[in-house]
Amino acid sequence: MKYKFWCKYIEQSVIFLLVLFFISTAIYGMPTTQKLTLECNGQVYLYDHRPVVLKINGNTISTGIMPPVILEGRTLVPAREVFESLGATVEWIEKTKEIIILSEEHFITLQIDNKVAIVGDEQHMMDVESKLIHYKEGNITKTMIPFRFVAEVLGYQVDWDQENYIIDAIPKEPVDTQEPEDPSNVDHPKDSDPSNDLEKPKENQEDQDSDGFLDQDYLNKPMKASFIWEKEEREEEWLVSPQPIIREEYAEVNIHSVQCVDITEEKSIVQIMATGPITYFEHHIWENKLVVDIDNSNMALSHLDQIAKNHSLIKSISASQYSVDPKKTRVVFELLNTQTKYQIMLSPNRQNIEIQFFPNSIQSVSMNTMEEQDIIQIEGTWGPEVEILRLTNPDRLVIDIPYTINPFGGNEERTLGQYVEGVRTSQYTSNTTRLVLDVKGQPDYKIQRQGEQKIQIVLTEPTYQNIEYVNGAFIGVKLKKDPHDSLPMDQILHEDQYNMKKYILTLPGDYTSWYGVGEMKVNDGVLGNIQIQNNSQAQTQLIFTQKSIRAYKIKEDERYIYIYICNPKEVYQQIVVIDPGHGGKDPGAGANGLKEKTLNLDISKRLWQYLNQDPTIKVYMTRMDDTYPTLQERCILANDVEADLFISIHNNSTGNTIAKGTEVLYFPDSTPHQSGLTGKQLAQILYQPLTNQLGMYPRGVIPRTDLYVLKHTTMPAVILEIGFMTNSEDAAKLKTESFQEMAAQAIYEGIQNVLKQYPTER
Fold first, then answer.
1. In contact, 106 and 156? CB cutoff 8 Å
2. Is the domain defined by 467-570 classed in CATH 1.10.3470?
3. Which of 2, 311, 471, 739 has the highest Cβ tally under 10 A?
4. Out of 81, 412, 721, 749, which one is annotated catalytic?
5. What is the 3-state secondary structure (H, E, C) of 129-178?
6. Which homologous superfamily is 572-757 in?
7. Residue 23 scores a pLDDT above 50
8. pLDDT digits (tens, 9 = 90+) for 723-753
9. Is the backbone of residue 596 left (phi > 0), alpha (psi -120 to 50) or beta?
10. Annotated catalytic residue 237
11. pTM attached to this predicted model
């Protein structure tokens, strides 16, 4: 009996264990999923998919923080991290939201939320468009593009392993005609793809990834404390001394043509051609211009602008009849680089002047580390100029060497420097060598010359700390908070010195013990630099030197204060540009004791005060004092900030002293603003309060096609002619401060009416 009991017990236990085993196998044998919180256009989506393993030719590729995702049955991957591994260069064009993928054979253009891809000059329809996707857990926004389409254009076959969720790009083999199955052509189950309706976020900017290609094996290379790349020795042709020009008297000739006859990497030959033997010529360099004076000649040249078009060394060519008696033709070559070397000679038959221009060739690149500094040395045929920009995520310093030829191709080195972890080079454009330094953190640097042929970039520890510049999806500055000293965000003062392209943030106290002082060099297209210093009141300031006018907003979390650097339209609801006409060396008109430039400024500054007190309006002035911005500069400012309205303040004058009153001028063929407003409608709305409240004679709303600021601004624009200074009745009013105040009030009322009828809806 006891024996049967134990048999029964063992049997039940075995059954229980078997059931438990199969249950656990079913549970733990199931593929794991990755749960991501993805955000687009203010909408948050829970992405619950199996992780996609990305490989290139069998080698697993890391995509960094942002993993591949499946959207509408297609696999999207981060642009730069993936396609630079395929030997391509990836660039982001913020203004048009375009991704440029450039390989040796292909030029591919993709655009956010657009299924049309352009390969070379041909259009292709993709199954899914590229997207800007914000990965909340990773706190990063990336451009995600269709993997299969781009990989196949670049010459890869894409294999998809459905069982293991592996996607592999393999160089195409001619014998392999089997179409692979992958996420870009497989319909994934609906319940595994909850992100079908993803849209791009409102405020995101992609990393500026224009630093040349990154070889797949780069990270596997051994690291070196120092290195040197040297060009193979060869004699430079421009070092050969030309024969002296001997004067020989011939008949008068016509200089009839300038032609580029030979362009190679080593030289570019330009010929000045005459109808017969040339008596004599002289040449000299003045600033960045090569001047050639040809004796006993008539100038018969035309269409010179086409010759210099797209030339790598010549900016422009001009010519003139420099002298009539004696006859002398002057041909001027404006060079892109003042250091360009050249050799000039006369052809054997003396009918052609031949000029050989030689680009600077990089002779060597080296790196050494000493005394906590990394020194990058670049040697050229002659001392090269360099332009350095800072990129982040990951941190890089990009060194562009314009007007040079790179003899090293796509060289790469892993390094053990104090700051430099790797060096890469490429011929970025036809006449620009690019050197990319992969760096730890954000070191400072200085540029110094060594003799006539060498230049050094010395990387050092910065004098500032706890401050980080970011130019990825978020463009701005991260200030790490001092845990022992609070920094009230609402007490940070803003000062917009937009006419100097500076923006100043003043902190409420001295924080230099935590943030330090010094200059953070950026030069990335958004900023030139950031100066960290104390003002005379011992308050720490961040002074941003901008490449174009920007707007700033500040947010914070427990650890950081985030300074967002934005386009003005991303911050301000309504933007108005006020343009006080004339100024400085341009006095404008004048009569009856009035100076137009002063009167225009007085009315404009009163209007500025009204607008500046309105929290819904951001106002920019083209001038705040007696200075003279050119007409072009006034338009550039308005277009740069993408203003909603441009209003130029003027006053009239004429030889007829009877003429009087107010008129408003507009450009008749202006394109409607996004709000629907046209220049004519703006003129009509502003005209009413001006004439009603000022009691001036109504001269009407007048179309004008010949006025620069109306033609060259991209928003609705008007010129307000308040009154006639040459009319005694108008002049008496214009002289009084009360009238000037009334004029400013009337214009402000008109602006309010415009913005109410045509809201920007931002």
1. no
2. no
3. 471
4. 721
5. CEEEEEECCCCEEEEEEEHHHHHHHCCEEEEEECCCCEEEEEECCCCCCC
6. Zn-dependent exopeptidases (3.40.630.40)
7. no
8. 999 999 999 999 999 999 999 999 999 999 9
9. alpha
10. no
11. 0.66
